[in-house]
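Hi R.,

Here's the chain you asked about this morning:
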Amino acid sequence: MTVTRRDLAIHLASLLAVGLVRPAWGQQDQESFRSLSARLTGFAQAAIDDELAAAMLQALRATATGAELDSLLQGAPAENDSELARQIIVAWYSGMHPTVTGGASLRAYTDALAWRALEFTKPPGQCSSAPGDWSEPPAGVGQAQ
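And the predicted structure, written out as tokens:
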């Protein structure tokens, strides 16, 4: 019986999900991932959510991007045109990250960085802060530059 890397990744991810195996990465890797995410997205590291970073890091580890991810976490230059860098950027801006099964998992819709980057709008379905504020132009519109 031949075991492929994909099979191994799927089985390890399922063991992680069940809680039978403790992750080998720790708080230091999570902080490195937050730092890497800040560099890639252009947002301050404080804007990178800890809980979401942990979920994304676990998902990236489970989808077999290990060697490239490890080198980026250890400080290798992040090329925005690499597939992994694009995957991380898309995950933060959309709130979705890849899963082991090949699909995507929505982790953060209203907290996705896209809504912070688009200062003039908010996620559909999210209530505004004051009655009638929809009638006012967005902040910064019409101001001289």
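The chain has one domain: 5-119.

Let me know if you need anything else.
M.
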